[in-house]
Each structure stands twice: as structure tokens, then as C-alpha cells.
Amino acid sequence: MNIYVGSLHFKMNEAELREIFEEYGEVASAKIIIDKYSGKSKGFGFVEMPNEAEAKKAIEELNGAEVQGRNIIVNESIERSDRRSNFRGGDSDRRGGGNRRDNYR
User: Fold this and answer.
1) Which of 9, 30, 103, 104 has its CA 20 to 30 A from that of 78?
2) How far apart are CA 61 and CA 53, in angstroms?
3) Cα gap 75→36, rounded to integer Å
4) CB of 1 closer than 8 Å to CB of 75
5) pLDDT tens digits, 43-95
6) Residues 6+ away with beta carbon under 8 Å from 7
7) Could you give all domains of the chain from N- to C-terminal order, each with its CATH number?
8) Cα(14)–Cα(26) distance, rounded to whole angstroms?
9) Edge-to-edge strand list for the sheet holding 29-34
10) What is the pLDDT of residue 79?
């Protein structure tokens, strides 16, 4: 199971993140997202745990827990493609259909 971990201390490293989750079971990977321009942590990351029961226990017990002075957010990660499937953006519905270019002619 892929787990989202937010509100991380900006100085936390991936080894520390992995260590926190290893208390609940096997961790396949731990990744902290880094800003490509500044090279600094964005304050969130992802942990992959192969055992679903262990992952759910980690989510339940770590969500809201204080880690390095911050209350972290921990929940099941939603794949990007799943998250975007319900998106209803764009202007076509409000302007009678067609693509945007047609609406400005």
C-alpha cells in the first residue's frame, strides 16, 4: 500500500521516515519529495508498505502523531490518475460545448 505522509519537518530525511514506519512492519520504500529548483524538502513524502494490514495500522496510529515537533498527516495515497478522474474543469460546459478556441471566435 502506498501511504502519503504530510506536514513533515523540512530537515527529516528518508532514512528517518523509513525508521518511523518500520515500527509497524516491512517498508519497501520511503521517499521525501524534494523541490527541483531549491533542492529542499517540500514537507511531504510517500511510504510503500507491502502488507496492507501493517500499512493500515501505521496509518491509524501515526496520523496526527507528533514527529520532530510537528503533527504529521498520514493516509492512504490516491494514485494521480484516480484523483483526476472526477475532475470537471474547463469552460466548455458553461459556454455551450466545443473547445476553448471555438468559444472565442
Assistant:
1) 9
2) 12
3) 25
4) no
5) 999 999 999 999 999 999 999 999 999 999 999 998 877 555 555 555 544 45
6) 43, 44, 70, 71, 72, 73
7) 2-78 (3.30.70.330)
8) 15
9) 29-34, 41-48, 2-6, 73-76
10) 80
Say how far apart CA 70 and CA 65 lie, in whole Å: 8
Residues 6+ apart with CB under 8 A from 35: 41, 42
Dig out the grid coordinates for 90 from the structure.
Answer: 474547463
Q: How far is 21 from 49, CA to CA, in rounded Å?
A: 9
Question: Could you tell me the three cell numbers for 67?
Answer: 514527529
SS3 29: strand
CA distances to 4, 7, 81, 90 from 20, rounded to whole Å, are 14, 14, 28, 41
